[in-house]
Amino acid sequence: MADVPVSDALVFFGATGDLAYKQIFPALQALVVRHRLAIPIIGVAKAGWGLEQLRERARDSIRAHGGFDEAAFQHLSQLLRYVDGDYRDPKTFDRVREALGGAKRPLHYLAIPPSLFATVVEGLSHSTCLGQGVRVVVEKPFGRDLASARALNETLHRFLPESAIFRIDHFLGKEPVQNLLFFRFANVFLEPIWNRQHVRGVQVTLAESFGVQGRGAFYEEVGAIRDVLQNHLLQIVGLLTMDAPFCSDPENLRDEKARVFKAMRSLDPASVVRGQFRGYRGERGVSPTSDVETFAAVRLFIDSWRWADVPFFIRSGKCLPTNATEVFVELNHPPRPIFEEPFMASPNSVRFRLGPDVRISIGARAKKPGGNMTGEDVDLVAIQHAGGTMRPYERLLGDAMRGDVSLFARQESVEEAWRVVDPIVGGATPLYEYEPGTWGPPQADDLIAPHGRWRPTLSTSGGAEVPGLAHTDEPRLAQEEEAARGPGPTAVH
């Protein structure tokens, strides 16, 4: 990456919105603290504001969400510029061009609803703000289905080459998710068993103990399948199942992920369970007859030589018993029972705890003390820590400014992910109600029953999660996760 030029300015649209307030300003201060940001930062919005109001907004944001550092903030404050104007007004982009001064390779970050992507990119093009070396970061959701994703890609490609488009998914910037990729390919002992001959099944869980937190109108537009399954969870499956790239070049990494996405079988509606927590229809902005899912569980197959016939069970939902993101890889049973215990005792497993803390462990059987040859489950913990201090947006914005595409989705991968979920979006399957604080509707247990059961997630202390027990840091986690989902329609832009 040494020969890739670094961006010489950052322009972010949606500078007065929720995402900027909860995520972007704290990330920018963190980049300043690490001496990785010394370029003009131009905020753009239609709020009737001036520069001093933007600076105060940034100060309030970092105090609330970022660990305020006076010296770093003063430096950040001096880098800030502000352009106020309507995105549909060509004069707005003329003022952006003027604010850029002599910058030749700006990074334009679109922290705005996807419906405005084309408007802004076209405005940048007409004002000569797009040229060689320019990069554009676009937020999710990137489309609502396969057709809209393709249309959006076609629109962006009218003005930009694929190499200039950085499709952001904040999940890929998280330290625990990075650890999954690193652990797989920095060690050799997993490789001999990481295939259909040894893996019996895989479970991926993203559980949230909170509801829609006043963003009902936004959630009505997405639902659990569009919000997290099509992007975050399929990305995790991709990192979990991809083959090793033949070198560290970012495009080789993305090539291997694209191959996995192409091998994923489109979801069968018969292998999907959608749920909605009781009380969702009473949320502000939600239709009283809404059929939007707040929970989804699916059975996925990857039709590759390595993973053929291995079932991947994926579930995510709101108002579940805890906040946790985990991958549980279940290995096959021994071929014959030898000792005096049930043949179907717990199999070996590999567990990746991806949030809120980081934990990688191997599940095994060990002999219980005493005269009998009976066993007990033990965890061989490879790593356990709090999850790192680098914010996802700090990492991703820093990478984008350096032109590192490793953690950004390529067009073909985005479209393949939509192809996988396309048969089940838009209420194509029945909707079941479930009680808040439970693990979704019982039909989700029926989905996995022929294979076994859902494995309980771990508590932050490493033991099995107690249903209904909430972590003390859940309000903070809820706020950060909701903000990182992208700019909802209630945001100020």
Q: What are the salient characteristics of this protein?
A:
493 residues, 9-stranded mixed beta sheet, alpha/beta, 6-stranded parallel beta sheet
How does this structure look, described?
The chain is α/β, with parallel strands linked by helices. Helix content is 33%, strand content 19%. It is built from 13 helices and 15 strands. It has helices at residues 18-33, 51-65, 70-79, 90-100, 117-126, 146-157, 175-186, 216-241, 250-263, 392-402, 411-421, 443-448, 474-484; strands spanning 9-13, 41-45, 80-84, 106-110, 135-138, 165-167, 199-207, 272-277, 295-300, 312-317, 324-331, 349-355, 358-367, 375-385, 431-434. Helix 1 links the parallel strand 1 and strand 2. Helix 1 packs across helix 3 (70-79) and helix 8 (216-241) packs across helix 9 (250-263). The longest helix is centred in the middle third of the chain and has 26 residues, at 216-241. The model is unreliable at 465-479 and 487-493 (pLDDT under 50).
